[in-house]
Write a structure and sequence with these properties.
It is built from 15 helices and 15 strands. By secondary structure, the chain is an alpha/beta fold. The chain has two domains: 238 residues, P-loop containing nucleotide triphosphate hydrolases (Rossmann fold, 3-Layer(aba) Sandwich), CATH 3.40.50; 116 residues, Udp-n-acetylmuramoylalanyl-d-glutamate--2,6- Diaminopimelate Ligase, Chain: A, domain 1. A six-stranded parallel sheet has the order 2-7-1-8-9-10, sandwiched between helices. The protein is globular, with a radius of gyration of 23 Å. The model has no long low-confidence stretch (mean pLDDT 92).
Length: 372
């Protein structure tokens, strides 16, 4: 294989553990050490179509656009598990050797034009097994080592690491290091100490311990618009506002007025015009002394907001969207939603980069991956 010591593979013990967040910080940190750092997402599941008609993984768009990477989108996103892919694969319409050839060509191209490459896997190590291209199989094919991301904790985190490491062992892939993510700051030192003791039996070092950061979990109204498949009805200019409080409002307007907080996202039926007007009044009361976009609204129910209410929301520049779902169903959707990092959400992307860079041992990373 080409360039074994010019790349490493980042996988995780499960979904939403923080691979993309970690890769952002790793690429940013490595760019301070190497002249050119590439990015590869071998298998993509969530994809988007570009203006030129090319369909690529969403994370590839984020990395290429944010870091202004020179490599073509399609080289960084060689294989997509689009709708119907699995059935086509099992029906023999897609051949594994063709996929591996495509992957190898793209990998070799990136190796040739970069000093090192960060390769982001998809989900846990076993994702993609049905097409014989799970994370361990991809890493084995390319002949590169793996960095494993695990949620901050001890027992359950180590159990998850053991399961994922077993699949790496099965395919002869070395787990070169572990990074713990979303660790409660108050437990950071304790978790680092005891996880290091547990990993010592495998001779695997901890490369970083990233503290939990609530801001990284705060979705914007643009994220919720994607979740509900809706467009903003007002406040488009504030679509990237982050909300620190989410409140389901089904109480009287008198009680609600005592509950209004800065940067609060209100979920209420569109028929509750008293709540909407109270929110608008509160926004106007703030005036120019505070940030203009301190409130946001998700309006629900089968009865849409009236044109007059929409016009008032627009004049107040309150970011709001309407979705014809039950209020409690909307709350359930939001509580189980994890927003993906996007290039346009520069505040959250930069927060992720700064956080990861500050807590990764880059000298140790370079040593265990053979980059230096």
């Amino acid at each position: 294989m080409v360039g074994k010591k010019k790349a490493f593979f980042v996988s995780s013990t499960g979904q939403h553990v923080g691979k993309t967040t970690m890769c952002l910080g790793l690429v940013a940190g490595l760019r301070k050490i190497f002249h050119k750092v590439g990015f590869l997402k071998p298998i993509g599941q969530e994809h988007t179509q570009l203006d030129n008609g090319i369909t690529v993984d969403k994370d590839v768009v984020l990395f290429k656009d944010y870091f202004s990477l020179e490599d073509p989108y399609e080289i960084m996103s060689p294989i997509l598990f689009a709708k119907g892919f699995t059935r086509d694969y099992l029906d023999g319409k897609i051949q594994n050797h063709h996929l591996r050839e495509c992957l190898q060509v793209c990998y070799d191209e990136l190796i040739e034009h970069n000093d090192c490459i960060v390769i982001e896997g998809t989900g846990h190590v076993g994702v993609g097994t049905i097409a014989e291209l799970n994370n361990a199989q991809v890493a084995a094919h390319l002949g590169i080592d793996m960095i494993m991301i695990a949620s901050g904790g001890l027992g359950s985190s180590f159990d998850a690491l053991a399961i994922n490491k077993a699949m790496c062992d099965q395919h002869g892939v070395l787990v070169a290091g572990v990074i713990l993510n979303k660790v409660l700051p108050s437990k950071q030192e304790m978790v680092m100490n005891y996880m290091a003791k547990a990993l010592a039996r495998w001779n695997i070092p901890i490369l970083g311990c990233i503290p939990y950061d609530a801001f990284l979990t705060n979705a914007t109204l643009a994220d919720y618009a994607t979740l509900f498949g809706a467009s903003l009805i007002s406040g488009e200019e504030h679509r990237l506002t982050h909300f620190t409080h989410i409140r389901l409002v089904a109480t009287s307007v008198k009680v609600y007025k005592t509950l209004i907080r800065p940067y609060q996202l209100i979920i209420t039926p569109a028929s509750r015009e008293d709540i909407i007007l109270a929110t608008i009044s509160h926004q106007k009361h703030l005036g120019s002394q505070q940030a203009h976009n301190t409130s946001g609204m998700i309006l629900t129910g089968m009865l849409p907001p009236s044109p007059a209410i929409i016009e008032k929301l627009k004049k107040a520049s309150i970011p709001a969207l309407y979705s014809p779902v039950h209020t409690f169903h909307a709350m359930k959707m939001i509580s189980s939603y994890t927003a993906k990092l996007k290039t346009e959400d520069t505040a959250r992307v930069q927060e992720a980069i700064d956080l990861v860079q500050a807590h990764i041992d880059f000298p140790k990373l370079l040593t265990v991956t053979g980059l230096r």
